[in-house]
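Deviation from plan, reported transparently: flavin-adenine dinucleotide complex.
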Amino acid sequence: MERRPVVIIGGGPAGAATALFLHARDPGLAREVLVLEKGRHPRPKVCAGGLIPHTLDCLRELGVPLAVPNVVVHHAAVDVPGRRVTYTDGELCVATSSTIRW
Ligand SMILES: Cc1cc2nc3c(=O)[nH]c(=O)nc-3n(C[C@H](O)[C@H](O)[C@H](O)COP(=O)(O)OP(=O)(O)OC[C@H]3O[C@@H](n4cnc5c(N)ncnc54)[C@H](O)[C@@H]3O)c2cc1C
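Because the crystal trials were delayed, the predicted structure below was used instead.
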């Protein structure tokens, strides 16, 4: 049986980021980490296309460029039964091409 010191189950954002952070911290670990993914990527995935500031910090730390068209979102409003929730306080997120109507 194959043995690895680190096995990550799932290659979604959490699993992939964990593997990338481990590699960034110790490149020698790259051959030791096994990511097991039951699906096939890229996958069909419902997504709003928004990247919150923490996600952008993580991408910067990993040296992953944001290589798709994007805009910074400063205002947002969501209608819920009976009221509207608004956000107008600074940088909410970056909207990527899947959500932008050019
Ligand atoms: C409608 C919708 C819109 C969203 N929009 C946004 C957005 O705009 N911006 C944003 O940042 N987030 C958005 N999200 C949230 C985002 O999708 C999740 O936060 C993110 O996918 C979570 O990543 P994860 O790696 O934890 O889980 P997942 O993305 O679910 O990845 C888990 C992976 O593990 C695999 N897996 C599961 N079980 C096993 C197993 N037993 N063995 C091997 N592999 C396995 C799966 O196939 C999958 O690939 C949205 C979510 C939804 C539902």
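The first strand starts at residue 6 and ends at 9. We consider this an acceptable substitute for the interim report.
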